[in-house]
Amino acid sequence: MKDRIQLNKYVELKYRVLDAKSGQVLTSVDFPLGYVHGVNDVLSAQVMAELEGKAAGDRISVELDCNTLFGPRDESLVVTDYLENVPEEYREVGTSILMENERGETKTFLVTRIDEKTLTIDGNHPLCGRDVLFELEVLNVRDASEAEIVAGGRVEKPPKLKGVKPVPL
């Protein structure tokens, strides 16, 4: 009998996220994502609930309203400035910039546009305002070890090196 996804099971899966309207692949993870179910909620609660009871080989699709997950798009988090005011290391689309406000709160902004004169950053989550389809394939389900339960995922043993004493985990 196949192990089924439930509390304290180690799960490996791969997934991709598609724009529900256009079908465009927004992101995909082909390298297995591993986690301990119910301990490490690496995915949204809705996706985690849909995975419950599934087994290796199962595939599921979950529609998500990203406004519910990340809140509505806030245009005040989109800022355009003259290129000359932006340090050289931030002048590439896709660059993450950690910003801090006067209260010491931090937020990550993403460089979304650059032209000859200006650079635009956006503090909204990249999926904000979209409806997406989350397609997942369960690759493996098994009992998690005690160490994996504590860590919330796979625990790798360090390599054995001659003359080097290993550090305990």
Radius of gyration: 21 Å
Extended strand count: 8
- The CATH topology of the largest domain is Chitinase A, domain 3
Q: Give the helix level as a range of percent.
A: 10-25%
How many domains, as an integer? Answer: 2
Instruction: Based on Cα principal axes, name the global outline.
Output: globular
Second-tier CATH architecture of the largest domain: Roll
Written description of the protein model:
This protein has about 170 residues and is mainly β. It has 3 helices and 8 strands, in the order ββαβαβββββα. It folds into 2 domains: about 10-70 and about 130-150, Chitinase A, domain 3; about 75-120, Thrombin, subunit H. About 10% of the residues lie in helices and about 40% in strands. The chain has a 4-stranded antiparallel β-sheet. A 4-stranded antiparallel β-sheet has the order 4-7-6-5, with no helix packed on it. The longest helix is centred in the first third of the chain and has 7 residues, at about 45-50. The radius of gyration is 21 Å and the shape is globular.
